[in-house]
# Entry
Amino acid sequence: MSVIETERLPLSVFAERAYLDYSMYVVLDRALPNIADGLKPVQRRIVYAMSELGLTAGAKYKKSARTVGDVLGKFHPHGDSACYEAMVTMAQPFAYRYPLVDGQGNWGSHDDPKSFAAMRYTESRLTAYASTLLVELANGTVDWTPNFDGTLDEPRLLPARLPNILVNGTTGIAVGMATDIPPHNLRELAKACIHLLKHPGAEIETLMRFVPAPDYPTGCEIVSESADLLKLYRTGLGNVRARARWEREPDTGYLIVTALPHQVSGSRVQEQIAEQMRAKKLPLVEDLRDESDHENPVRIVIVPRSSRVDAEQLMAHLFATTDLEKSYRVNLNMIGLDGRPKVKNLREILVEWLAFRFATVTRRLNHRLAKVNDRLHLLEGLLIAFLNLDEVIRIIRFEDEPKAVLMATFALSERQTEYILDTKLRQLARLEEMKIKGEQDALAAERAELEALLADDESLKGLIAREIADDAQKYGDDRRCPIGAAPPAQALSAESILPAEAVTVVLSQAGWIRAGKGHDLDPTTLAYKAGDGYFIHAQGKTNQLLIGFDTKGRAYTLNPRELPSARSQGEPVTTRLDLQDGGKLVSLLMGEGDQRYVLASNEGYGFVTQLDALQARNRAGKAVVSLGDAALMPPVLCRDPASELAVCTAEGRLLVFPVADLPELTKGKGNKLIGLKGKDEILALGVLPPAANLVLTCGKRTLTLKPADLDLYRGARASRGGHLPRGFQRVEALNADIGTKS
# Structure
């Protein structure tokens, strides 16, 4: 009976060890790219498998399922859908700045990157740019490792001739860390690398003269501040703000969006704009159209309502409220040459990649030098055989062991002898001494050049610089994303973006509220529910404040734009406000925020306040007038600081005094307006502009007091005032008449 040996571990130790192993696997073999070739393992295996299938840029396309099958079966035993999706991303020109896969068929669209066809329908091959990752693979430049089942070898890294880690960038989420590397312009990176080869001490500020910002494939505008970009490249962490590019057609005045931020869907942007239009929050836009086609992948047409619309302001509003402006997180986290993940700055990335490139080119040159030396060695033996051809033939024909005899007779090495023996006689006879010596001379010159390069680091750097420049010229292009620093866009306020329209707000006796367009609306003629009727109304504009006062002296704020139409019966005001302690709205004010009102109670106290001081931030309103058991008088508008306040009481007294004698408060009880005795109370208030007449209304009777007549009633604030004539003891209203002055 065999004994099975087991290892016993505490659960905490086992769990910690297992989780750490899993974490390191995800970090190193799944989620983070390597600084050398800028690829994750699945991407590297896809590119390598396609090269093994012969799917170069000039080859015929093959079904993507064939490539995915090879990748999964030989190198990457994981899910086929995840592998195919990684392959699709490398083929999408709107996802990769310089795609690695050339796809044929449906590989997704800018609006919906996930809409690609299944792998059995699409075909693919490598792009020309992908050759920069593979062309030196057979030149002894990389280390090889067994695949997952040990039947094949695969490269640990690809010998990238360009800094692909920054060229195409990548995103990934590992355990406890993530990476977000934006794409950059190939020619800009090449210039930075060449400068760094010539000036190894170059600082980040200098390198940013060549690499000023990321370069996204969609051609959006980079609007980050230069200080933010400097911080990003100095620390490896930060944000990049990108904004759609647009232009105004001179003939029509239409606004045309021609480029979107990276990974932003045009259809999603149109939905966001259309949603604002449906909610009537964007009246500056009359129409929205999508005119994108094959020649113009992005062409969103925004039709302003009129030629007077400020295009810059409108687009700034859309930048702030839609995905036309987007901020991208940047986290330059990658696996370095030491095999450790680290967030690196721009200089560290380029210096480390150049070190990798230096080592790769050195290995390539050494590999070629070994090939040259081996060929020269063979040619030397071949030349000896040619010069002694008859003897060589005799030895081969008559000697039992021609190999040993040849080696002894002509002092040949075993390698030379085997090569001579493997050469067909007719080829040997056709060889000419001059041809052999010519090849020897060419190879000797190449060997001298290789040895000189390997012996001189500066010459080697020069070679690397020339190769980078040549590749950048061949595969690179101009910058797509212009750079123009701009502050974050601010959305326009409702008052700024919506036109101000005349409006009449009506409140019924039962507390139902509604709003109608214009000031010619007669609120008494509106339809009311059974048992309900007209109570009060206010007139103003839709961009003005609407303040309501309740019986407790609390002020509430409403948005007139949000009120139901006067064509309906409205809605209970309690659906928008939380009236406190059973209060009921008794007054409506509407106007500009700097307008001044006199607020008073029927017990004879009051003060002056501005309308914007009454604005409440929540549904519960704010306490403004301290009433106690008193009642709130209808607020009175005071347009001129030199106006006078007229106060009438139930005993038939009238007092006129300057409004300036009252304090200006934001809340409180205020000062005494008029001296009251017993159960006397204020019945009416009125504000008189300078030199205006005062009209008193009592039932159907009116009394007009001219400025000279008012001297009988003028007095100090809080005095008793004068008696009104018989019949005007119960004044209902005080109004100013500026049409007839004495």
Summary: The first helix runs from residue 11 to 31. The first strand starts at residue 62 and ends at 63. The two ends are 129 Å apart (CA to CA). DSSP finds 19 helices and 35 strands in the chain.
